[in-house]
Fold this protein.
Amino acid sequence: MNRSTAQAGEARVGRGRYAGWILLILFLLAVVTCAVVLQILRRPPQKAAAEVPIPLVTVQRLESRAVRAVVHGEGTVRPSVQVEITPEVSGRVVFVHSQLRAGGVIRAGERILQVDPTSYELAARQARAAVDEAQARLEVEQAQAQLQQRDRRQGNPEVAETQNILALQMESRVKHAGSSLEAAKAGLALAELQLGRTVVMMPFDVFVADESADLGEYANAGRPLARAYGTDTFEIEVPIRSEELAWLDVLGTLRSGDRESVETPGPAAEVKATIAGSEHVWPGSVAGMTGRVDAQSGQVFVLVEVPQPLEASADRPPLLPGTPVEVAIPGKMLENAVAVPRKMLHEQNKIWLVRDGRLVLAELNIVRTDEEFVYAMSSLPGDASVVVAAPDGATAGLGVRIAEEDAAGSRQAK
């Protein structure tokens, strides 16, 4: 009985150990399986081969044509004529023009100011009386000379020598009276001239820059009472590089002051200024070269004139002295030339073209440049597509898409 019980207990213990081993093996298998699954899940997905996009470029067709060279420069407006309003006689100021103030405009022939004319009127009256007196004296002497000449013809031949002497004396008196009359007339002319100078006028319209004349003050002859500018034309002295001068038609032409040159304007010019935040343009003309050369820079100076600069309109203010301006002077024509914007340049004298969908680098024969364009003699085919802005890292032969063609394809696809 006891032996059977012991055997049964041993059998149960053996079965328990066997079951434990099985559970351990199953647990290990589960752990390994989980580890493998987790490893598989942690693997990064394989990346597909990335496609390199073809750069998109914008092109522009540049056509060869006749291009007029335009020379640009800067300068400051100044009056062509500057005058000082100065009385030529002394006296108390009895009249002042209402526009004799800074910024005023006085028309030609208008009375600007006047000095008290009383003393000058009296001097003119006195001189006029002296003329009348000298005239009367001359007439008396001439009458006496005629009487003596008649008596001489009718007189005794024995006293002829005495009569000749008297005739010479009478002739001398007549000449003296004539000279006195001429002197009196000159005195009258001077007195009338001085009287006329009591009124100050200008033969042309003037723009008053500043003044110091007051009604009632004593003005001295020769002392300026105001400063003014002629309003017919203002001028700008524009410095031009010597190489730019070759494109203008003023080479060798100095400014002339004769009337014919003033009435016949030179080549046209455009004067531009920014006033009160707005840009305004005035027409001008090239008057010629000043004949002056800057010793340091070698620049020459061209004079540009603006007619009637003070005439204002609803959309343009007057052009005042001291205004900084930009000047554009049209010059000679460039035949069969291409104007290339500077932003299209590569390596200063090359441009990118698109041929058969690939970039091609073309060299330009540049003959002239300015701030915005370079001008080249055309060697481009008529259908050349010039790249506006090349993509980064552009190289010859790089495949590209043209923006217009790409947009057209997108519209067709839609």
In short: The two ends are 98 Å apart (CA to CA).
